[in-house]
Write the structure tokens for this entry.
Amino acid sequence: MNYWTGATALVGLCTATILLMASLSWFVKRRRDRLPMAYLLALASLAALQSLEFLYHATGWFRSVPFFLKLVDPLIVLIPFCIYGYIRALQGEDVLADARSRWLHALPAALVALLAVPFWSLPGEKKIHWMLQGMSDESLWQPLTLFGNPYLALIGGLSLLYWWLQQRRGIHSRKAAVRDWIGHLQRLQLIIAASMAVRILLYTIYGESFSVAFVLAPVTAYLTFLLLSHARPPTHIAAATNAPVSGAVAASLTPAADKDAQQQQQLFGQLCAEMEQGAYKDASLTLGKLAERCDTTTHQASAAINLCSGSNFYEWVNQYRIAAACDALCNTDLSVTQICYEAGFNSKSSFNTAFRKINGCTPTQYRKQKLQPQS
């Protein structure tokens, strides 16, 4: 038994299990953010599975139960993709939205699985023989399936590829917490790629090899620490942190209330960002729904809107809806009725009332005035 590798794998398994339980809890509770939580849950599951495989080898269990040899390799190859998918999901993007993307991202795992079929079909004693040969000296490995440095090179290459793809796509979220969090995740991608490269170089130059358990355990522990220290991982909400507070309100703030006002201003920025992304188009939008999108309470959302906009929730929402309606009246040929419902109103009468209150005329009159040639 390799005690050092076994102990390291056990530490990795413990931290991966903590991460897995936390991810599962977030996945169940945070229904609105199921997509990023699903990627995080998959990442934690794969980390735990890889730690179990390290224990399986280090303790020699494979000698008595060879069935699991090389069985999880195709799944472990998906770790770099899970990190990338999580990063994109934090920004509201599903990288598996179409069939072509699903096939492309699954291709490395499918390739590893295809190459492993001949090994999987071997009798148990043959599997044990070749595994012992490979553990003794990687050059003695004969089966077609990827093993040792070629397998690690694939994982490292995929980590670097997904890091490059993320760099190319950029960070579209305006929320500082999300941008900082993505920075941590990209560092993890580089750590994985660099550790694979170091391991391959050490073996190529000096003939020395070390178990990847010594990489996985600290990386998993670092990720678990980051997640738990945040209490909960960031969401994909893009926050506009510089939403203005009216001068009259700002002048009335006391030093004791200034910190609270800044927090409400930041929350108002998040609420505004949700509206700018089209939340107002939902005719059934309520203060409770909007508050849930921003991970806050109805009371806090209401207070932020009242303080920063000087109006109540429905008046504030109607400002966005009327602004969208005005734009459509001037720049499209849609009927007033179509514009009414696309802007988020439940009825034409409520639309006309809100429109007249803000613009002092009906939608039809507004369109005629704006489209009338200037003399």
